[in-house]
Specification:
alpha/beta; 15 helices; four-stranded mixed beta sheet
Length: 382
């Protein structure tokens, strides 16, 4: 169990829940970062009294520094601030709850210092999974997944030998538009897309869940985390979100991890592992469950998942290009600049145009990320 953490992205959904878990378990929050939401960050900083806070936006950081001048909390900014927050000597664990490829460099910096990584940033492994996992193995840094599905697989594999695993069964709620045809999705609004039927999440990840891109990102992430091939992962639609994922062993045994749909549970495990502590979350009431259903994903009407699976098989910079283009497209959709179905079109076009079959180093990955973002904005004139 860790004693002191840094929370990268403390004002987002995962970040806020992490702070609640830290308060419940008595784990010290020594550093925290945000993009620009300084009013909430100031409130959090005064409550948790970290030694260091950082704001990615330079102007917002200057405003926060003024706001906190009556405290002894140091304030940093930009990527340098994120890197410092990720590498403070006194922290045991870095919770990577930032969205997008901005989390890649701080994660690698924390790995170099052998910090535990409580990984909630999918893009880190989607964009540079081979690089990150290789370096973690070399330094001995732990990577504990925070996503509910990957945490479930992690728990199902506890005590198992690698040769015992036949496949990972990655569950998916199906999102708010499960069962609809692609032509019906054309008129979907941002307000409709962010209303997930089971999970309370931020806007970007909610839209990703609606397009099934989120499950595509998780598909690639699972491949990297557990060192398996794309053929070793099967996505299963499970609307009730009670089984968070399963593993099938070579003898045919299937082990499932179940619980209420609350991200606080995998967050707490990532911070307390290998220990388990009493939690503040609701317990699963089996008598209230009417049924548990399963089906195959609809790849024709929700092609983002198929695109991600194709990128997983291709490798190189395909996943990075797809993720970056999708991120920019989702932001445009949330601002009502493009339609819902255009998100997939832009991501697929970016992959077809820009993806390379090799990703030699971090610079190659970051260049691919930047190129994909430019592609989307040039294609949309935004």
């Amino acid at each position: 169990m860790v004693k002191s953490i840094s929370v990268l992205g403390c004002t987002g959904s995962i970040g806020r829940q992490t702070l609640a878990v830290a308060r419940h378990t008595g784990i010290r929050v020594a550093a925290m970062t945000a993009n620009r939401q300084i009013d909430l960050l100031e409130e959090q900083a005064r409550l948790f009294r970290p030694e260091f806070v950082a704001v990615y936006d330079e102007q917002a950081a200057a405003e926060l520094k003024t706001a906190l001048r009556d405290t002894d909390i140091r304030v940093g900014s930009g990527m340098e601030g994120l890197l410092e927050a990720a590498t403070l000597e006194q922290i045991d664990c870095v919770v990577t709850a930032v969205s997008g490829a901005v989390g890649l460099r701080p994660t690698l910096a924390a790995i170099e210092r052998k910090k535990r990584i409580a990984l909630a940033n999918k893009e880190t492994l989607v964009c540079a999974g081979e690089i990150v996992m290789k370096r973690a193995a070399e330094t001995g840094a732990e990577i504990i997944p925070v996503d509910s599905e990957h945490s479930a697989v992690f728990q199902c594999l506890m005590g198992r030998q690698k040769g015992e695993l036949r496949r990972i069964l990655l569950t998916c709620s199906g999102g708010p538009f499960r069962g609809r045809k692609r032509e019906e999705l054309e008129a979907i609004t941002p307000a409709q897309a962010v209303k997930h039927p089971r999970w309370n999440m931020g806007a970007k990840i909610s839209v990703d869940s609606a397009t099934l891109m989120n499950k595509g990102l998780e598909f690639i992430e699972a491949m990297r985390l557990f060192s398996v091939s794309p053929d070793d992962i099967q996505v299963v639609i499970h609307p009730q979100s009670v089984i968070h994922s399963m593993v099938e062993l070579v003898d045919g045994t299937v082990i499932a991890q179940m619980g209420v749909p609350d991200m606080g549970l995998p967050i707490q495990l990532a911070l307390t592992y290998p220990e388990r502590l009493p939690s503040m979350f609701d317990r699963l009431d089996f008598t209230s469950l009417q049924d548990l259903s399963f089906s195959a994903p609809d790849l024709e009407n929700f092609p983002c998942l198929r695109l991600a699976m194709d990128c997983a098989r291709r490798g190189g910079t395909a996943g990075c290009v797809m993720s970056a283009a999708n991120e920019e497209a989702v932001h445009l959709f949330l601002r009502e600049k493009i339609g819902f179905n255009r998100i997939y079109d832009l991501a697929a076009d970016a992959v077809a145009t820009l993806a390379q079959d090799t990703a030699e180093n971090l610079e190659t990955v970051l260049e691919a990320d930047a190129a994909a973002r430019r592609f989307v904005h040039e294609a949309t004139g935004s």
